[in-house]
Amino acid sequence: MDIYNYIDKYGNKTFEEEQFNEIDSVLFSFLSYANFENILDKSSKKSIRDIAESYQKIHNTKDKNIYAVKEANKLLKYIADTKRYKNCIVYNYEYIGNEKIQFGAISIEYMPNKVYVSFEGTDQLFSGWIEDFIISYKFPTISHKTAIRYLNKNFTFNSKELIVGGHSKGGNLALVAGMNANIFVRRKIKLIYNMDGPGLLDKEFNSKKYKKINNKYVHIIPDTTYIGLFLNHSNDYVVKSSNKGILSHAINFWMIEDKKLIQSDLSPMSTNLDIRLKEWLEKYNKEDKYNFVTNLNDVLKKAEVTSILELTSKNKKIFTLIKETKEINNNTKEILIDFINLILDCFKNTKKEEFKDYINNIFKNDK
Fold first, then answer.
1. Do 26 and 220 meet the contact criterion of CB atoms below 8 Å apart?
2. Burial of 283 (0-12, 13-18, 19+ CB in 10 A)
3. Which of 17, 18, 220, 290 is the most buried (most CB within 10 A)?
4. Checking DSSP bridges between strand 260-261 and strand 256-257, what pairing results, if any?
5. For residue 262, what is the DSSP state?
């Protein structure tokens, strides 16, 4: 079954009757993508039922958001009248979106003094996607610092028991914030969930801070993952997805048996990709990766690439631009070509007709 079947089966059970489990974490980690604009602010405290009612009044037309936001909005409405979720209190809402940073977070009190902190993954803002590449050479990023501040600001001076999580980039933020929060907050964190998000650079991965939270940390990745393989990762919990390749990143395809995700083995494609990503990251230094991010942005703009799907149809144009652009030195050209080939290899295992609409929804903003 999928996440919606789980809600149908256990939605009539309170957290007192059926304790919090990893499926609830999957759901809460994704809920931070939902569109809370004009419904919540930093001082608001509202139940999921009240938020869903407000959402319905404000957004009573067809949902034209990007895929992750759209799916989170759907989840919000789906759980609004369930006994399990309707009275959960959402607060500490924060969203920052500009040319330098894309950051979102909510706190969900699902039982008295038990809080799930959910960090949002990348939405439609291009600054968020650029930061996904920046983490290959820089720590901490602006979003990392903001996530750490969020935990310290909201949970230093109270007695809340915390679970911290997020999906995609949000999972990386949950990991970084959880290991770098002050000691008062860290003592309150019981679990840290990274849902198919990137890992850490060498220094942070080998740090004492990471070792201290390692026994609380769970890295959930689908069997044909690609994003969850980026940077150093451990504590991998591989789960079965009903879709393959890039599609497996979406939580609504993760397969569930009763109250647990179905465990699986990493596919040969993902195993090979894991090796190639490690080789790519080790091959180039910090300056190389900085030049890579800067020039990739310029090249994609020149190639008029507006979605990931267009990488396959415009890859010849992209390669030509890389080779002919005089401002890009030969070393950076090699990095760009290597990385784009890695991305293209990810797509070879997914049928175009299966993911075309999905990818367009992820990267196209129809607002």
1. yes
2. exposed
3. 220
4. antiparallel
5. P
- Dihedral of alpha carbons 31, 66, 101, 52, sign: negative
| pLDDT tens for each residue of 150-186 | 999 999 999 999 999 999 999 999 999 999 999 999 9
- Band of the pLDDT at 193, cuts 50, 70, 90? very high
Please list, residue by residue across 156-177, b when 16 or more beta carbons sit within 10 angstroms of its beta carbon and e when fewer do: eeeeeebbbbbbbbbbbbbbbb
Two tokens, residue 28: 């809460």
Residues in the chain, overall count: 367
Give the residue ranges of DSSP H helices in 235-329.
Answer: 268-283, 286-302, 310-313, 315-324
Q: Do the Cβ atoms of 101 and 143 come closer than 8 Å?
A: yes
* pLDDT tens per residue across span 291-308: 777 776 666 666 655 444
CA 238 to chain centre: 16
Q: Could you report the per-residue pLDDT of 250-262, keeping only the tens digit for each?
A: 899 999 998 999 9
CA–CA gap between residue 215 and residue 201 (Å, rounded)? 19
Q: Is the dihedral of CA 193, 198, 203, 206 positive or negative?
A: positive
Tokens of 259: 């109250």
- The pLDDT value recorded for residue 317 is 58
Query: Is the C-alpha dihedral spanning 140, 142, 143, 145 positive or negative?
Result: positive
pLDDT of residue 307: 45
For residue 301, give every residue at least 6 positions away whose Cβ sits within 8 Å of its Cβ, in sequence order, or none. none
Q: Which residue has the higher pLDDT, 339 or 319?
A: 339
pLDDT tens for 205-253 read 999 999 999 999 999 999 988 888 889 999 999 999 998 767 788 899 9
For 27, list phi and psi in degrees, rounded to 5: -65, -50
**Block residue for tokens 């139940």:** 47
The structural domains of the chain, ordered by start, are 3-267 (3.40.50), 274-348 (no CATH)
- Tokens 């957004």 belong to residue: 59
pLDDT value of position 165: 98
> How many Cα atoms occupy the beta-carbon half-sphere of 75 within 13 Å?
26
Identify whether the C-beta of residue 70 lies closer than 8 Å to the C-beta of residue 33.
Answer: no
Q: Are 225 and 250 in contact (CB under 8 A)?
A: no
- Note the pTM of the prediction, 2 decimals: 0.84
